[in-house]
Amino acid sequence: MENYLIPGIPFLLDGQMAIKFFTRCYFTSNHFATAFQMDFDDWGRRNMHSSEQGYFALRAVEFGDRQQFEYVLNLASARDVKNRGKHVRGYNYGHWQTVKREHMLRVVYEKFRQNQPLCEALLRTGFVRLVEASTDRYWAAGLRITDEAIRSSNNWPGRNELGRLLMRVRDQLRPLPHHVLQINKHYVVCQAAAPDYVVALAAEPHVQPYAVRINNETVNAARQLQIGDTLVIESVEWREGFEQLGAEGMNDRPCWVHQARFNWQATASAVYSVCMHRWVPARAKILRCVRGGPRHNRTICSIRVQLDGIEFVLTQRNVNGNINLAQQGQWIDVSAIVVAEHWHADWGFILPPDAVFRGRHQIVSDGRVRIPVFVG
């Protein structure tokens, strides 16, 4: 069976490797034929032939239509279910929109949890983005699998919710060793100021080492690590003298940030799991550009950028590189990161809400969910 488990078609999405899928020939599709069971409480534990069948069965259960429920379970294929399983007595569109995603998550999770070959095949997709390529504007990207426009997420009219759920299930099913679960050493990449490594901070402020250097070559990931990625670190090699400083409680906390760079205490020698964060492209307008003196090419650049309808004005200091051609009023391409509310963001790094230090530079938190970071 494993020889026929194909997730989809590899392609470049926003310049990075991804997998697009549609139709029953790919195991990521809801129409892929696979047997599993679902528990419907008072209506019993039933056999499913596809996740499409499980989804429409839950739809009938949600509105208490036992007749439609039994009808869906007797349909022979996912195609029949999609074409003939939608008519539910008492159906309320608004209510269904609020619960359908959680129902789909439950179905997809059971599909892979109960089928070891499918689970292993899903985990083999690593950390690449999974995209349902159809014209559905909720579950899929809103574009056909043959449409070249799908290579840029900016072109998508759809939300790709099924792809997102598959990636979420993949993270849930990715095994973690018991000792890793016990120590709970989860880290967030908070700075990527060098080409060959990043610095991650522990998600919990009491964890030591708190700041860890992670070389890109240590992590076998689909792309280089970037700000916002999360990791589980199994083992580290301490920098000389820093283990003792960490044990003493890091009393002089400002010293752990020097010239806007984190002083890492240790280097990761083994990383078990990586979850890639989402970066999105954006357009920005240069408001001000102050160039450095003749002895260096560092500059200060202020931009105005709009992300999801929210406008931000950001200033990045110490921009590396020659931007002599940059002019006030010029439009440029930048990248933006989506981080959780109450996180802190500066031009060069992000910080968790409970970070044990703030550094020597002002950290700005705008109190909203989406905070972009300008990348020079």
Automatic annotation (TrEMBL):
Cited CDD domains: NADAR (cd15457)
Domain NADAR residues, every copy: 26-174
Record Pfam families: NADAR
SUPFAM superfamilies in alphabetical order: YbiA-like
NCBIfam families: ribofla_fusion (TIGR02464)
Protein's name according to its UniProt entry: NADAR domain-containing protein
Phylogenetic placement of the source organism: Eukaryota, Metazoa, Ecdysozoa, Nematoda, Chromadorea
